[in-house]
Amino acid sequence: MADRPTKRAKTAAAPSDTEGQAAKPEHLQVCSDAVEEADDAAVDVLFRLTSLKDAPERHNRYAIGLQELFEGEFTQCLLTNYMYDLPWLFASCPRLQDVPVVLVHGERDRHAMTQEWNGYGNVMPVAPYLYGNRHTKMAVVLYPTKARVAIFTTNFTAIDWYNKTQGV
């Protein structure tokens, strides 16, 4: 009975896709090819980082800002977060003042929040503990023909959006 080659011998003998260079795993090759072929201004990715206010332009190359998330003629908006700076948020995204907005928040003083932004629906979910609760930070922005869903790691505060790297 002839000896079969070992797995190591089979692997070493297998031809690679590129002469003298090991082939990239398929998922990495697809990403690499897409970035190389894409026009810098038109790279469309599902995950982005927030743009930083005072960072060099190259650091914000594929980043997204708050104004970009809320661009266009949307008709309604659902915002969920635990921390809001509402005067800053509504000043940064003026369109939010013109459409129905529902705020899901963790603010303990719901009465004060309601008075501050009278006319906006706001909901405070029941949380069994004051700290350590998981909570969703997201925006659902409705347009006449589409919906934009953005899930992120940042609070709706200026310091989080402008000075900290966050995921979107």
Poorly predicted runs? 13-18, 27-36, 38-42
Overall 3D shape = globular
The amount of beta strand, in percent, is 5-15%
- Physical arrangement of strands within the biggest beta sheet: 3-2-1-4-5
Rg over alpha carbons: 24 Å
Please identify the structural class as seen in this structure: alpha/beta
For the biggest sheet, the summary is: 5 strands, mixed
Structure explained in plain terms:
The chain has six helices and five strands; from the N terminus they run H-H-H-E-H-E-H-E-E-E-H. The chain is of the alpha/beta class. It has a domain of 82 residues. Strand 4 and strand 5 form a beta hairpin.
Keyword list:
single chain; 168 residues; alpha/beta; five-stranded mixed sheet; 6 helices; 26% helix
Q: How would you summarize the topology of this molecule?
A:
Blueprint: H1 7-13, H2 26-37, H3 66-69, E1 76-80, H4 86-92, E2 101-104, H5 110-116, E3 121-123, E4 138-142, E5 147-151, H6 158-163
Parallel strand pairs: 1-2, 2-3
Antiparallel strand pairs: 1-4, 4-5
Active site: 135
Keywords: DNA damage, DNA repair, Exonuclease, Hydrolase, Nuclease, Nucleus
Family: Belongs to the tyrosyl-DNA phosphodiesterase family.
Summarize the structure.
The chain is α/β, with parallel strands linked by helices and 168 residues long. It has a domain at 72-153. It has helices spanning 7-13, 26-37, 66-69, 86-92, 110-116, 158-163, and strands spanning 76-80, 101-104, 121-123, 138-142, 147-151.
